[in-house]
Write a structure and sequence with these properties.
Blueprint (H helix, E strand, L loop, with lengths): L1 H10 L5 H22 L2 H18 L1 H13 L2 H6 L5 H29 L8 H28 L3 H17 L12 H9 L1 H13 L15 H4 L1 H26 L3
Helix pairs in contact: 1-6, 2-3, 2-6, 3-6, 3-7, 3-10, 4-6, 4-7, 4-8, 6-7, 7-8, 7-10, 7-12, 10-12
Subcellular location: Cell membrane; Membrane
Protein name: Transport permease protein
Family: Belongs to the ABC-2 integral membrane protein family.
Length: about 250
């Protein structure tokens, strides 16, 4: 199933536009449009960890759209009639979309270097950051899988998923320090796994965890152990959403 989805992308390369052009646009937009007001070059160093995290999170939309399209065209029903595991249908989609996110990360690294961002750590640390991003994105893609199986069309799947992903992405320290948010939003942002993943990515790449040395981020367990917290949350998300996706897949037969 993973091979089938990757071959589809090779045959229809336009499908890669969302995985390449969108991350590039976000890097350039935040670096040059907002960067001057929020800290210039220092902000760009801070920004990239958030852009990396946002991109792998938004990749769940490809999973939702892909499964919604396959369901609408009857492809999922045909797969269900074959002697194959139901989990392979969804797992193949989430794995292929996770592999495509590697292309997005590569594009963002190139764009980051173009705007002045640099990896200031070892190769192993940088590789660890990429692996964490892939694992976190893989976990979130199962949310996209559930939405894609439930939604009737690709358009409704994307809209429903973005209603969830947009607020949790922006109520975090992906693009701004959480200390600037009002009380309830600050508390949410501090424990938001997007915050911890962005922070872990920044630390692994050797980038600042705040856009300015004068800004002090709140300290809690998640901020002190961002990598561990991100991994634990990703595992919990998988533990909840994988069974839900399989149950939704079974109910779709009716």
């Amino acid at each position: 199933m993973t091979q089938r989805n990757l071959l589809t992308i090779l045959r229809v390369p336009q499908l890669l536009l969302g995985a390449t052009v969108q991350p590039l646009m976000f890097v350039l937009l935040f670096s040059y449009v907002f960067g001057g007001a929020l800290g210039g070059p220092t902000y760009r160093e801070f920004l990239m960890g958030g852009i990396f995290t946002q991109t792998v999170v938004f990749s769940a939309a490809f999973t939702a759209i892909g499964l919604a399209t396959d369901s609408k065209e009857g492809i999922v029903d045909r797969f269900h009639s074959l002697p194959m595991s139901r989990v392979s249908i969804v797992l193949g989609r989430t794995l292929s979309d996770t592999l495509v996110s590697v292309v997005s990360i590569a594009v963002m690294i190139a764009a980051g270097y173009a705007v002045g961002w640099r990896i200031r750590s070892s190769v192993l640390d940088a590789l660890g950051a990429v692996l964490l991003l892939m694992f976190f994105g893989f976990a979130i893609s199962w949310l996209g899988a559930v939405v894609g199986l439930v939604a009737g069309t690709a358009e409704s799947a994307q809209s429903a998923l973005m209603i969830v992903l947009f607020p949790i992405t922006f109520i975090s320290s992906a693009f701004i320090p959480s200390s600037t948010l009002p009380g309830p939003l600050r508390a949410f942002a501090q424990w938001n796994p997007i915050t911890s993943t962005a922070r872990s990515t920044r630390e692994a790449f050797g980038n600042p965890v705040a856009p300015s040395p004068a800004i002090r981020e709140p300290v809690n367990w998640a901020s002190m152990h961002p990598t561990a917290y991100s991994i634990v949350v990703s595992i919990l998300v998988l533990a909840v959403l994988v069974p839900v996706a399989l149950r939704v897949s079974r109910s779709s037969d009716g």
